[in-house]
Every structure is written in structure tokens, then in C-alpha cells.
Amino acid sequence: MSAAAEHLTPPSPPADTGWLPLPMNTMEQHAALPTLTHDERVRFQVAAGMNTFLAQRLLPAVQRAASERVEPALNAELGRPPADRHEYRRGLERDPTWQTWSRLRRSNMEMVQQACRLTTLRQLPTLVETCRALNAGHDRLTLEPSLQPPGYLARLHSHLMPGGYVTDLGSDDVAAGATYELGVYAVLGGKSGPASDRAGRATVAWLQEHRPGWRPKRILDLGCGIGANTAAIARAFPEAEVVGVEAGAAMLRYGAARAAALGIENIRFVQGDVEQPPLGEEKFDLVVSLMVLHETSRAALGRIFESSQRHLAPGGLTFHLEQPPYRDKPLIEQCLRDWDGRYNNEAFWSSMHETDLAEALRRAGFAPGHVHETEANAPQVGATPKTQEDYGRGGAWYVVVGEKPRLEEVRP
Ligand SMILES: C[S@@+](CC[C@H](N)C(=O)[O-])C[C@H]1O[C@@H](n2cnc3c(N)ncnc32)[C@H](O)[C@@H]1O
Q1: Pairs from 327-336 (Cβ < 8 Å, separation ≥ 24)
Q2: N or C: which end of the chain has fewer CB within 10 A?
Q3: Which of 256, 361, 303, 322 minimizes the C-alpha distance to 152?
Q4: Rounded to the nearest whole angstrom, what is the distance from the C-alpha of residue 264 to the centroid of ligand 1?
Q5: What does CATH list as the number for 190-410?
Q6: So where are the chain's domains?
Q7: Cβ neighbours, 10 Å, residue 106
Q8: Helices in 124-212 by DSSP H: which ranges?
Q9: What angle do CA 160, 161, 166 make, to 5 degrees?
Q10: What is the rounded CA–CA span in Å between residue 191 and residue 379?
Q11: Consecutive sets of 10 residues in the chain, 412 residues long: mean pLDDT of each?
Q12: How many whole angstroms from 311 Cα to the centroid of ligand 1?
């Protein structure tokens, strides 16, 4: 069997990988997906395995060091328990177990991201051609070459992804999208499902539970990335028109090609800044953002909420999904959950977790009685590694929703 044929054969997920991540060939296969050589597959397996090892196996040692060494030392030094996670972290950062764990985690993140980028760049001309051909068959991609992406996206390469989301190498570049798709699977060890769409499935599950029978006709996904989660929503509502807005052209070209390769025809991909989406007066029944807010500044977050208010139709619902806030958790857990904000190039992670998102949604124009905080989750699919909570990356998501009353409800 040729290497390409081997790649395209749908794999049977292993029945049980224990705590180890799922191998990369258990990803949902599609024509736009980068292929992996044997050596690349092994490199991913080692790096993803190390990532999971650090999160699953070494973490208890960090927790032990914190309670047995760091806390007593801090108590003695301060003459009182540490007041907040910043004081606690200063103690942790002096501890060799934390230092080793954190350094290894950071280096491993760099290794995973570099592996994704190298695999993508090795075959970039082929990926560009494939995506170009897939996108030539439809008109569901609208790019805006004059867009100036917000500085926080242009200057900051979130979670160490080389080039970040908005680098465009020109000539129909798709590198950011391909790098992102590989990276999500490797970092999460496949826990988000073969299509990396657990947040999208969680959104659908939440809607089915809380608005049973509701079929939104127009759906807007703010910061859709490569549209992996958008696809789960589009698949659940095949009769709906779904629009994904995203700043990165290379993310969108890849995302549109990916959707075409998967036979998903009801998503339109639009390049734009979600602080001010290029959608004129268009209205949507459902406006979502999935794991976007932690990558924007606090001011931008408010403007994204204003966008969701502006583009929401009367009777509609806005739904913003994020990692759960940790401000009320024990200090060691706060430090673990805050790790990405300090060491993984997630510059707005900490401030987002300190922001009262419900209050921010009210400030954006949603009436107090129409804003709710809730949780969403979706079952993992396929063979799933047996893992404990990976602080900051697992468990149920936090969601803030806002509803816009129908006109007859506000007019006497
Ligand atoms: C962590 S990714 C999540 C992508 C997608 N929602 C998902 O669930 O897979 C965040 C995405 O939001 C996009 N983004 C952040 N701020 C944006 C802005 N102001 N305008 C457009 N896109 C933005 C980034 O480019 C990135 O693709």
C-alpha cells in the first residue's frame, strides 16, 4: 500500500490506550488533512505522549510538593497563608518539582507545535493545491485581503503555534489551518473526538436540552478558526445557514476546503474581525463563540459581546463557551489552571478568567434577566484515553448565554 493510500484508509481506533493519547491516525480523515510519514507519526506520538504524561502522571508529584514543601515554606515566610495565586505561584516557582514539570511542559508544547509546523511546511505546496481545488468547487469562502488583524492576533502567537492564526504566506496559503488542526489533536491527545469538535457537539447538546426542538435558521460563529466546531453545529442543523467569521485567511482557506472535503455545504466562511464583523445588518438566531474569548484583550471581549448583540435577531440566543473560571478554586488548582496564561503564550488567559463574563454581556446590552451562566459538555467519542482532569483543558465548559426578547415581548 502506498503512503498516501495508507493515510487515507480510515483507521480503526485502538480499543484502549490507557492514559496515553490517541495516535494521530485516529483523526477524522479528509482530503485536506496533512499526511504523516512514519517518522512524523512517531514524533507526534512521543510529543503527545509526553504531554499527557506530564498532565496525568507527573502532576500528582507537583501537587504533593505543593502541599508538603511549598505551602509550609510560604506560611513560614509570610507568617500567614498565601493570600492569592500570585503569592502561591512565587512559592511554587522556587520549587524544583514545579520547575522541572513546568519547564518540561513548556518545552514539550514547543516540540508539539514545531512538529505540526514542520509536517505542514514539508507538504505545503500539495496542501495549497488540494485546498485550492476543493475551494474552486464552491463559493462559500469570502476573503478580505485589506483586513488589518487586531494587534493581539498579529503580534502574539497563541499557545506557541508558529506564525499564530493570522500569518498569511500568500499564494493561497493554508499553513495556519493545517498546523492548527494537527496541533489541537496532538495537544488534547484526541480527547476532543476524531473531528476535534467536542465544543461544537457540547453546544448542540446544550441547545437540545435547554431549547428542545428549536431549529435556528441562521447561525453565526465568531472566531470560527478552521470551523471544526462550526461543522458539528452545521451538521446538527443541516437546514440552517451557518456563517463563520475569522481573522486568519490561511485558517479560513483550510477550513473551507476541510468543510468541502467533508461534504458540509451549509457553512459560509468570512474573513473579518469579530469585534466588528463585516456582516452589515445581517441578523442570526444563534450567535456563538467557542474558545475565543481567552485569546482577546478585555476591551476586545466587550466589543465581541456587542457584536453578538448587534447581529442577534429578536428571539435569538448568544452562547459563549470557555474554560471554567478558577477564581474560587484552591490556590494550587488556580496556579495549575493558570499555567497557560503564564507559560504557554496565552496572554489574555488570566485576565479572561478574572473577568465577570455575565456582567460583560449585560454591559453589551443584554438585559440582566436574560443573561445566564451555565455549563456545556459532550461525550467523548471513539476510544478514549483514561485520563484525569487536565487542569485547564478538560471537564465541562463554562458558558455564558444571553437572550434577546422577541419584539412583541418588549413592546407593550
Ligand atoms: C482557540 S481558536 C478557536 C477556534 C474555533 N472557535 C474552535 O472552536 O475551534 C480562537 C480563534 O479565534 C480567532 N479570533 C480571535 N480574535 C479574533 C478577532 N478579533 N477577529 C476574528 N477572529 C478572531 C483566532 O484567529 C482563532 O482562530
Answers
A1: 327/353, 327/354, 331/82, 331/84, 331/85, 331/88, 332/63, 332/66, 332/67, 332/88, 332/92, 333/391, 334/85, 334/88, 335/85, 335/88, 335/89, 335/92, 336/59, 336/62, 336/391, 336/392
A2: C
A3: 303
A4: 20
A5: 3.40.50.150
A6: 3-141+151-177, 190-410
A7: 16
A8: 124-136, 151-154, 175-188, 198-210
A9: 125
A10: 10
A11: 43 68 93 97 93 89 96 97 96 97 96 96 98 96 96 89 94 97 93 93 96 97 98 98 98 98 98 98 98 92 98 98 90 93 88 92 97 90 60 76 85 58
A12: 18
pTM given for the model: 0.93
Calculate the alpha carbon distances from 271 to 28, 70, 80, 186, 274 in Å: 25, 48, 52, 26, 9
Residue 112 and residue 183 in contact, taking contact as beta carbons nearer than 8 Å: yes
> Helix %, strand %, coil % for the chain, to 5?
50, 10, 40
Name every protein residue with a CB atom under 6 angstroms from any ligand 1 atom. Answer: 150, 153, 165, 199, 223-225, 228-229, 246-248, 251, 273-275, 290-292, 295-296, 300
Query: The C-alpha cell of 233 is what?
Result: 453545529
